[in-house]
Design a protein that fits this description.
Largest sheet: 4 strands, mixed
Structural class: alpha+beta
Helix content: 25-40%
Radius of gyration: 21 Å
CATH topology of the largest domain: UDP-n-acetylglucosamine1-carboxyvinyl-transferase, Chain
CATH architecture of the largest domain: Alpha-beta prism
Strand order of the largest sheet: 21-22-1-23
Shape: elongated
Number of helices: 14
Bound molecules: ligand EPZ
Distance between the termini: 5 Å
Number of domains: 2
Number of strands: 23
Length: 418
């Protein structure tokens, strides 16, 4: 197990390009199951989660080849309806193959994804929606077994939570269903919009993506697609907070600034200088950090995937900040590590209150999950002295070469075999 070793106190400086979005690549890889022949996804980051999803697809008879930053996904020999247990257990996003497999083969058997340490992560909305499209679904001995006689039938579905994954799964399934499907209270996230753009390229009629009402008119067959994945707004947000927490000044390129509006608003309120153009942003830290109130919400609200990172920043703001987490029931796994570094944080029900301290102190901490690990890394960049972050395989699931990117910006961070 590798670890990061960080000498804190180096302000980040320089320019960087942001990778393609993990949370667009994963549903799009599942979406390729719907298309005949070879589809190509460009700008795919090289991450553990992408590798795991590739293993899931290969377990179904699909060929996945990486050529630089492009994945070639050939479904010519798609023949199995049961996904391989091991990779599915490792990756919650594997549930996204349920809709496409069902729509394509009329049968799907996928083990229930594990919860993770940020919450229970149920898939009831996926199952309920697929049943409304005509699927017969049983859940027993930890497996989801789904069948459909003939084609799925379009239906009007209401999601009682604007679930990103459920919206994506149901859009994919509805693409080969007979007739029209409406998804109400759908997620309006940029990754959902990216999936809709992929499906439109494959010939599916879709309207309303990016709003909470999406209309899909199913087609008989989807042609193969060549699609470039959107930039990763969470990687961008993480690097922006890294620049501010180290009192640095960086520029990020190949981003979609309008995916980060809620973050920019909060960071400007804290005193950061942010100059945003459509595809690039300039960020300057260094001013006295003001405390902040943040509440995570479904997009376009403040992203839960940036909550641990802004909590780390708030630990150094002059005064008391309140950060409320409304999406997941336990997304405060980064708090013990931040406290160990000297942060003053009180955890209430679904919120934390941080009382700013003048500095954090380097020590040994363990990454609890992808974004909690990112939060501890940011804290280490700002802390006095040396911080060791164990368990960074979590980070490798969601960030491609984070230590190289941060080193390029002047951070003193190395990856060490633990
Ligand atoms: C996606 O997860 C992202 N993952 C998550 O990013 C992100 O935090 C989350 O959306 C934000 O909503 C990918 O896109 C691969 P949800 P997803 O369904 O789809 C409840 C990261 O760090 N819910 O939108 O699994 C659920 O419990 C990861 O990159 C149900 O109740 O999240 C949660 O409270 C972490 N029933 C809420 O909805 C369901 O059937 C939002 O979950 C589905 C979800």
């Amino acid at each position: 197990m590798d670890k990061f070793v960080i000498e804190g106190g180096f302000p980040l400086k320089g320019k960087l390009k942001v990778n393609g979005a993990k949370n667009a690549a994963l549903p799009l890889m599942a979406g390729c199951l719907l298309t005949e022949g070879i589809s190509r996804l460009e700008n795919v980051p090289s991450l553990i989660d992408i590798l795991t999803m590739s293993q899931v697809l290969e377990g179904l008879g699909v060929k996945v080849r990486r050529k630089n930053r492009t994945l070639e996904i050939d479904t010519t020999h798609l023949s199995y309806y049961e996904a391989p247990y091991k990779p599915v257990k490792l990756l919650r996003a594997s549930t996204l193959i349920l809709g496409p497999l069902l729509a394509r083969l009329g049968h799907a058997r996928v083990c229930l994804p594990g919860g993770c340490n940020i919450g229970r992560r149920p898939v009831d909305l996926h199952i309920k929606g697929l049943r409304q499209l005509g699927a017969r679904i049983e859940v027993n001995n930890g497996y989801i077994e789904a069948h459909t006689k003939g084609n799925l039938q379009g239906s009007s579905i209401y999601l009682n939570v604007p679930s990103v994954g459920a919206t994506e799964n149901l859009m994919l399934a509805a693409s080969l269903a007979r007739g029209i499907t409406l998804i109400r209270n759908a997620s309006s996230s940029p990754e959902v919009v990216d999936v809709a753009n992929f499906l439109k390229r494959a010939g599916v009629k879709i309207e309303g993506e990016g709003t909470n009402l999406i209309k899909i008119e199913g087609v008989r067959q989807l042609n193969s697609v060549h699609h470039r994945i959107i930039p990763d707004r969470i990687e961008a947000g993480t690097l922006i907070i890294a620049a501010i927490i180290t009192k640095g000044e960086i520029s990020l390129e190949e981003i979609c600034s309008n995916h980060l509006t809620s973050l920019f608003v909060k960071l400007r309120q804290m005193g950061a200088e942010i100059e945003a153009a459509d595809r690039r942003v300039k960020v300057k830290g260094g001013n006295l950090l003001k405390p902040i109130r943040v509440e995570t919400l479904p997009y376009p609200g403040f992203s839960t995937d940036l909550q641990p990172q802004i909590t780390a920043l708030a630990c150094l703001a002059r005064g008391t900040s309140v950060i409320r987490e409304t999406i997941f029931e336990n997304r405060f796994t980064h708090v013990p590590g931040l406290r160990k570094m000297g942060a003053e944080i009180k955890v209430g029900t679904s919120q934390v209150r941080t009382k700013g301290v003048s500095c954090l102190k380097g020590t040994v901490v363990r990454a609890p999950d992808i974004r909690g690990g990112a939060a501890l890394t940011l804290a280490g960049l700002a802390a006095e002295g040396r911080t060791e972050i164990e368990g960074i395989h979590h980070l490798d699931r969601g960030y491609e070469g984070l230590e190289e990117k941060l080193s390029k910006l002047g951070a003193n961070i190395t990856r060490v075999e633990d």
